[in-house]
Amino acid sequence: METGNLEPVKLNTVSTKLEFSNCGKPIYPLITPRIFGGRKSLPAFHPWQASFQSRPKGSNLNFTHSCGGTLIDSCWILTAAHCIDEDEVRVELGGVNLEKDDPGKQFLEVEKVIVHENFTETPDALYNDIALLKLRDGVNGRCANETQSVRAVCLPNETFPDESHCTISGYGATQKESGVSSQLLEAKVLLIPQRRCMSQNVYGNIMDDSMLCAGYMQGKIDSCQGDSGGPLVCEKDQTHYIYGVVSWGDRCGVKKKPGVYTRVTKFIDWINEKMYST
């Protein structure tokens, strides 16, 4: 597959938003190297990772982690449409452990939820499985504050080649399963050619070009190590791009059933339209 040069897509922001210095550029602490394979993530290695938390409306219960998300701008989180329900929601940024207090954590209220108009859930697949969360401005007209542990990822404007190594991260939660890790996890996955994902012995014609699959055909690590709604991030020239949103799959780590992700490049116009018009 031929690819062009990848350049960060810098989103225009209104005056009430914090203009982050750049996107897709983590500031790694001077500690041991990154660990992959579904292992624990180190602080500041996924500074765009969000924990999308919910509780029943009108209750005083504690918020609990329900899905992942990705910070793409000071006031905007990208997530999966199937994560959205009628509960009260908030977003946690900047942490790597849901159960530990951390001065680097930021908790933000959600002002508006925007689900893709053509989101469709069928017994076999999820279509147009993408949503945006608009965060509420704080006292200084800012939403998330840019720090070492809170930074925005870039939106892609080109495709990555098949067989690229990319990274998933999250707390191990899915819509169908209750298991949640308190610790942020990460794993390396491969981008699998679309024709292989759509072959009859994998997913066949239930997939369309708004989806991609990533993982390993041998049935190793896949999005069970991430979250529904969480990021699939690919790197080029030391810049990180949100390339997929964890969407669905056939069980976990099953041979010839890799994880399926919303293909972010198909929704760039939709993302820009919703952000600019809000």
UniProtKB/TrEMBL annotation:
Reactions performed catalytically: Preferential cleavage: Arg-|-Xaa, Lys-|-Xaa
Pfam family, one: Trypsin
Ranges for domain Peptidase S1: 35-276
Localisation per UniProt entry: Secreted, Extracellular space
Enzyme superclass (EC): hydrolase
GO molecular function, one term: serine-type endopeptidase activity
GO CC entries: extracellular space
InterPro entries per record: Peptidase_S1_PA, Peptidase_S1_PA_chymotrypsin, Peptidase_S1A, Serine_Proteases_S1, Trypsin_dom, TRYPSIN_HIS, TRYPSIN_SER
EC number: 3.4.21.4
Keywords for the protein's UniProt record, in alphabetical order: Disulfide bond, EGF-like domain, Hydrolase, Kringle, Protease, Secreted, Serine protease, Signal
Location, primary (coarse class): secreted
Biological process, per Gene Ontology: proteolysis
Protein name stated in the entry: trypsin
Organism for this UniProt entry: Danionella cerebrum
